[in-house]
Amino acid sequence: ARAPLAGARPRQRFKCGGVVFSKYAGLCVSAVVPLRPGYDRRAGAGEKQFAANAKLTKMYRAVCEGETPESGCVNVPIGLKLGHKVERCAASDEAVTEFQTVRTSGGYSLVDFHLKTGRTHQIRVHALSQGFPLVGDDKYGDFASTANVAGLLGAPLKRMFLHAWKLRFAHPVTGEPVDITAPLPEELSAVISALESKKAAQ
C-alpha cells in the first residue's frame, strides 16, 4: 500500500482553493483554482459545491475478464448486500455507469468507465452484473481469471486493475474545460503488456 502524502489535510483542501486529486506519494496531482465569491468555505462544503458547479466528470480505466461490447450504459441499482457492512449488490439505489471498450486482448478487455452516479463499488458491481468482472478484484472478481493474469506476469497481481485516469471540470472562473490525466502505474502497464504478448503468441 502507498503511504499517505506527508502533511495532507484532506478535510481542509478546499479552503484556499487547492484541489487535491491524489493524496499518495508519487501520484500527487493538484490544481489550484480560485473559488468564486459566495462559495461556502466550511470544511467539506467546498468540495460539494465544486462538484456541483464545475460539472465534474470522473473517468476510470480497468481490465475486465472477457470481450466487452464496444460501448454501453449499465443502469443497475446498487445497495448493501444483506448481512454485509461493505459488500454491495444489485439493490435499490439508482446507479448508472457508461463504458467504452478501448481494446480487447487475449480474452480480456481494456475499458473506460464514466460514472453518472457515485455509489460505493459502483464500477466493480456493474462490471460483474454484465458478466465481465474486474481483474484482480478480490471481492467481486473471479479468482481463476486473476490467477491466469498472475501466471502471465510471472508474479502475483498485487492490486485490482482499476485506475482513475481522467478528471474533467469547468474552471470555476473562466468556465473553460480543464482535463487532468494520470498515466497507468507501472504495475498495471505490465498487465497490459503481458496480455498483448499472449495475444501476439496465439
Structural notes for this entry:
It is a single chain. With 202 residues, the protein is α+β, with helices and mostly antiparallel strands. Helices cover 22% and strands 29% of the residues. The chain contains four helices and ten strands; from the N terminus they run ββαββββββααββα. The chain has helices at residues 45-53, 122-129, 143-153, 186-201, and strands spanning 18-20, 30-32, 57-65, 71-75, 78-80, 88-90, 96-105, 108-115, 162-170, 177-181. The strands form three sheets. It has a six-stranded antiparallel beta sheet with strand order 4-7-8-3-9-10. Strands 1-2 form a two-stranded antiparallel ribbon. β5 (78-80) and β6 form a beta hairpin. The radius of gyration is 19 Å and the shape is globular. The protein starts with 17 loop residues before the first strand and ends with a helix. 22% of the residues are buried. The model is unreliable at 5-30 (pLDDT under 50).
The amount of beta strand, in percent, is: 25-35%
Largest sheet: 6 strands, antiparallel
Query: Helix fraction?
Result: 10-25%
**Structural class based on helices, strands and sheet pairing:** alpha+beta
Number of helices: 4
Question: How large, in whole angstroms, is the Cα Rg?
Answer: 19 Å
Strand arrangement, largest sheet? 4-7-8-3-9-10
Overall strand count = 10
> Can you tell me the residue ranges where pLDDT is under 50 for at least 5 consecutive residues?
5-30
Distance between the termini: 35 Å
Mean pLDDT reading: 78
List SSEs in N-to-C order.
Answer: EEHEEEEEEHHEEH
Q: Any idea what the shape is?
A: globular
